[in-house]
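Journal club prep — side note

Before the paper discussion, L.F. wants everyone to see what a predicted structure for a comparable chain looks like in token form. Sequence:
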Amino acid sequence: MELPVYTKNQLALRNGQDKPEIWVCYKGVIYDVTESRLWKKGMHYEHWAGQDLTDELSEAPHTETVFFKFEAVGKLG
């Protein structure tokens, strides 16, 4: 199944405050982290939801495999 494509503006609205969904993007794939207790209110440590976190992963104490726990809901277009 082909994932729908979302703009940066559409992703930005899924920040845990403007809409009920909490999404983040990594390497062009958008993941729904709404159910994660670590992303409540759209923030995870100093990282905000609703944006591309690809460049910020190097600062994290985990690898990219953390994203595989979440449902991919789209692609960043």
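L.F.'s comment for the group: The first strand starts at residue 5 and ends at 6. Keep this in mind when we get to the figures.
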